[in-house]
Batch of 2 targets.
Target 1
Amino acid sequence: MTDIATNTTTDSTAVALPHDEPSAPRKFRRRGRITKWISAAWLVFIVFTAIGASWLPYVNHSCSQFSNEKLCTTHLDTNPLLSERPPSWAFFSDTTRPVVGGAPERFGVFGTDTNGFDIFSRTMFGARNSLLIGAMSIIFGILIGGALGLIAGYVGKKVDKVIDTIMNIFLAFPALLLAIFIVGFFDSGTTSEAKSRSIVPIIIALVILSIPPLARLVRANTIVYSQREFVLAARSLGAKNGRIILREILPNVMPAMVTFAITGMAVLIVAEGALAYLGLSVSAPTPTWGAMIFGGQAKLETAWWISIMPSIVLFLTVLAINLLGDALSEKFRIREAIG
Amino acid sequence: MSSLQTAVRRETGTLLEIEDLATHFVTAGGVVRAVDGVSFSLEHGQRLGIVGESGCGKTILSRSIMGLLPRRNVIRNGSVLFEGTELTTMSLKDRQKIWGAEMAMIFQDPMTSLNPVMKIGKQLAEPLRIHLGSTRENAQEIVLKLLQDVGIPEPEKRLEQYAHELSGGMRQRIMIAMALACGPSVLFADEPTTALDVTVQAQILDLIEEQCRERNMALILVTHDLGVVAGHTDQIIVMYAGKIVEIAPTATLFSKMKMPYTEALFQSIPKLDEPSHTRLVTIGGRPPNLISPPTGCRFSPRCPYTTDKCTSIEPELQQAEPGHYFACHHPVGSDRWNEVQVSLGRRTGGR
Amino acid sequence: MRYFLQRLLQLLIVVFAVTFTVSLALGAIPNAEERILAAKGSGAINEVEKNKLLDSLNLRDPTLVQYGHFVQDLVTLDWGTTFNGNQPISTSISDGLKISIRLMIYGQLIALLLAIPIALMAAYRNGGIFDRASTTVSFGFISMPNYVLATVLGLLFTVRWQWFPAISEDIGFFASPWEHFKNFFLPTIVLALPLAATYMRLLRADLINTLQSDFITTARAKGVGTGRILFGHALRPSLFSLVTAAAVNVGALVGGSVVVETAFNLNGLGRRTVLGIFASEFRLVQVTVVILALVYVTINFIVDILYGFLDPRVRAGRLG
């Protein structure tokens, strides 16, 4: 009933009869459906803001109400009057800075940072960069890692050995140090200050980080599937290798790859944050969540919200991605067990 | 005889009294009525066989009696009296004192039933150390005796070995030795030979029988194979879909079976007196779904003698002669039975 | 045995490739010379000193010669001093190692001490309240980046309540056990909690599998008590994934706890490497990275062999 091919060590002579009844009742999973929906809703929200940040009313449009000096039209304009205001709900937080020019004591849902930017709006703009970095990295990771894995698994022999060894070399370095290395490598300046770093070296570092595990996963799956009957059948019908890989093997490897990539994206978003935390992410005017958290570190004592609010958004996003990834992997496992 | 610690029991009388025992599993698909109202009793030293197809509830029944099933999502009803003590309401701690000491169990697959990462000697000594508080040396002495009793060569060597180093038959002997360690008054053997080579099967069954005799130990032998219980039990219970459908002393059952299901089981055993290549009679269909069993007689969808009565009224256990009960509206030898036999072109009359 | 040799060969290839890549990387860095000279300090350097420094790095030699010198220096432990001339590289590395290894050991210990009992309890009452609660919490910790955790804990424990110092110092245990504890507490916790969550999930899953196996029923039918079933029978066969993960982390954490080291200002090996990259201390970075990679690869190699001790079946399979 429940034990399908679980005995791996039985003699060939031993006839393993199925047990009478399941020895323990199957756990039924109705729970968690709500969490799944909440996670999905949160991600949809984040993705929408990431895409539409510029068109959404996330800017400090209200600062003109109490500032005569400057009209704040974009989220990039500094507004010293609004510097480091706690979120409007944070009654327990005293502001250390004096209130000037009729500016409110507390401001916005997330408060404001040292420059007087609304942290909520910056966090939403940060979503754009953080998600972009995560998504781009994982997409390139899949393309390169997936291709390597397919080739290694399908061709086998020497090609497999070579690719595997290269992956082992990458895996021999502590992951974060490798990323730091790569980002640092692209810095051509002579001093550590005044670097304008674009999004590109960060993506390259994260792509390199994501290739080996993806390649290994795809390779393992490819080996399994390339020994299946349908591949043999396709080959005996004269299908070319490229066609077999793309038409027969790839669709089967896809679920595992996509599931892994989803959780992988969460890992990469976190990794970008770690790079930022070490001072190695995109340079100042472009917000990423990591950079925002890092930026608030020095102000933790007087203005905790600068770091904490983007931290919460980052945490929730990673959590949501992980929850969905978990649900997805469970689903695919069930399908594999049936099919 | 290994009787260093265990006095040989010579008690007679009732050992186990099972009354209306039911075990239902709550699953996502519904309530599975694995065991559905079973009553019987077992004497000291009596050897009882429980027979039925896979999925008829016999394994669950034996585990329910011992109380080995998990509590979660399980509905249990009825009573199990062991030497006058109610087991179903007993706390886990108290039941653990009985398990291994008073009631022992051996399982279907000796490959997976021994701990793969624990030395045989330690596993064998475990019940002794738990229940009798034996010292390491004392336990080892008893274990060596036990291993000799169950016919294992070079017992000293085995103590230091792991399960994977032994053959299937050897492992089942180890399991038996382990079950016998504390001198239990009843041994549950759950398909003890199913996973073994045919040549080893008979040896193991003989060993179990011999040990039962020597120790005046009762036996509950669970199997799907009527041939297995035939030579090794005093009484047989035939189960179908969680219920007892026939219960009789072994000789009576084979000579005067009443239940068509028993008949069908019997016909599906290969027989020596038939010419070779005779087609075996199989039982058509599948064991019923225990979530929503068929109305009336649960065997009716597969029974050749089914009438309207069978599908509407559930037959109660009725007495054929003292000690022989069956649950059927049209038992073997009845008019309906004869009628169908004629129409099938088989010989008529009782067996 | 054949397996052992295969693994060993693979190890050697990786070691070669790692050292070669690291050696090569120096030559590939844009403006390496200028950056090295800048690292040397703002003070005027005369032409002789400059050439001496660059010569010692063999920057101008052909690739293979460069590699040869690099390996020679590594093996003879002739690592030189940092470019800024403050201290020998070997001192810097051993100081960093001391902190990193200490942090790694504390983190692993706490993580395992948390994970094993929780996993046992959760697996024993699989699906119960404790199981669901601990699984949810562990999921939270897995999803929480360590810098976020460091920020939150730092805010609570050093800013709000001021129980622990904001900046950890490397105070030896024997110098002052209390100060030592106070300084290492937060970094250890930040390191340990996500680890514990990962370990707990791994062990729980394996335990649930093991607890469903036949030999556990055998043990139960023998009358073995609950505690003994969990610890005596179920735990050991369920330790595979946990041991693998924990062992791999021994290597990974020595250099990989950069974030924690940075958050609490501990001058561990990881942090020194990052600072080294910023300060263009390429020699220091090269040596550190090679050492870290060696540690990591060696530990992975040992893990494979360690399997045998856990499961006699594997031992038999490999020897036979």
Target 2
Amino acid sequence: MLRLIIVRLLAAVPVLFVVSLVSFGLTLLVPGDIASEMAGPTATAADVARVRAELGLNQPPLERMVQWYGGVLRGNLGRSILLNQSVGQAVLERLPVTLSLTLMGLGIACLIGIPAGLLAAAKARRWPDQVTMAGAMLGLSLPDFWLGLLLIYVFGVLLHWLPTGGFVAPGTDLLGWLRSIALPAASLALTQLGPIARMTRSAALEVASSDFIRTARAKGLAEPRVYARHVLAGSMVPILTVVGIGFGLSLGGALVVEQVFSLPGVGRLVIGAVLRRDWPVIQGGLLLTTCIFVLVNLVVDLLYLWVDPRLRENA
Amino acid sequence: MRLFARRNFLIGAILVGLVLAAALLAGWIAPFDPVKNNFRNRLGAPDDIYLLGTDRFGRDVLSRILHGAQVSLRIGLAVAVLSGVMGGIIGLVCGWWRGIDAWLMRVMDGLMAFPGLLLAIALAATLGPSESTVMIALTVAYTPRTARVMRGAVLVARAQDYVEAARSVGVRTARLLWRHVVPACTAPLVVQQTYVFAIAILAEAVLSFVGVGPPPPQPTLGAIIADGRDNMVEAPWIALSPGVVIAMLVLGLNLLGDGLRDALDPRMRRIMR
């Protein structure tokens, strides 16, 4: 077990190396002069020179890369040009919003998607199956940011039930927080429901034809219980896989949905930085978000072993 | 064709066909100039002249959507083809030459580790906003997935007896790959690229929505939604109607992909996901 964790951790090293290389390399791809672009159209030659020196752009790329890596390895991602804040601090400050949104969206998607998939499998090729799968397919095909706008229109503008945007910290007002995050989480959940329900269905169908399910039925277990306990347990590995992939997709989706609902998360930070050419924030934001992504995949890998004891023996 | 007998495939073909026809004919059937302002008719509600109303510059929303769909389809197709070729070659190389595999797939894993959208947004912003930039950014973001699928298919093919047999009678590698391995891998590749087509259309909409897509006044579906966002209360039709077109396209392509997958090879499910 411990050996496996170490092997997986080591496998993440080259991945993170490529990720950091790309994050750094972005600035080398910029056509034109970054310093004069960032200093703004009204900047004097002295301003541009100052920005250039501040960013270390007057050094050769290799030198800059060594310095950047030196900083990254010591946990220093540089300073934001516009926020007067270190990049690490800026990202970490906004991370709870993004992560809570992602987890809540994914949580709702699991709570609805897994039972829906089991139901579809239990009633395979009859109407509950067809309705669920058609719904799953539709959800999969809707753009989440557009769904967010649709929800804003229905629940905010027409019905006045929920706020149309803005964020309330859970510390100051728990109910207000739930209200502010309900619509964004719902729009994320709706797009993640589809893959989860589909995967649950196909895994459950495969498990449902195995011997131990026949035994469970033979000993007189009621059908709902067969599915809720035995089929679900047997289908956990593929479900976990799709939830793990879903985490990454939701994280990406959350970054955009934040933009729609004006939530102060990492997405707004990075997209704001992209539009205003705040390079250190773009690089750092990309690197940190991706590290979280890699970490989650690692955790999912290890969860397999916990869920399916058969896999432990080969490990 | 037997394919069209399948209900899902048929629905998918109809959805994509409708949008494709409308987009291709946009130049003729669009009732107005998509970029011409008309300040006397700002935020007009849908009526029998402006079927989907007008935006805050008085531009006809329907005409903008038709032209926007053209951009979406063009970018989606370009990304599907480009990442299909690149991913196909990388996957073939990795699946056949195991020595290269270890290195090249690590690079692909690294690229795949990024949330695809975020990488595409950063790349598009870096290279400067334009249609070709979006194509490049999305191709970089989605090639690794295709490479992975292709590699899987090549690994399956190279273990087949007929490939082994051809190899043992001394068929040269280039011919072996081209005549025996690649044909066995085209089906999964084509199916995968249908999904990439769909994903690329969604992603292009996101890129345009956040402001790193083709620059204005070029109408794109995502940019129309972003425009309409500020007028959600007075003029919800601006932001809401392009989404329906995106959903039609993406749903249609997904259904086509599923139909192709089931028709070409039911066993493919295992390599695809």
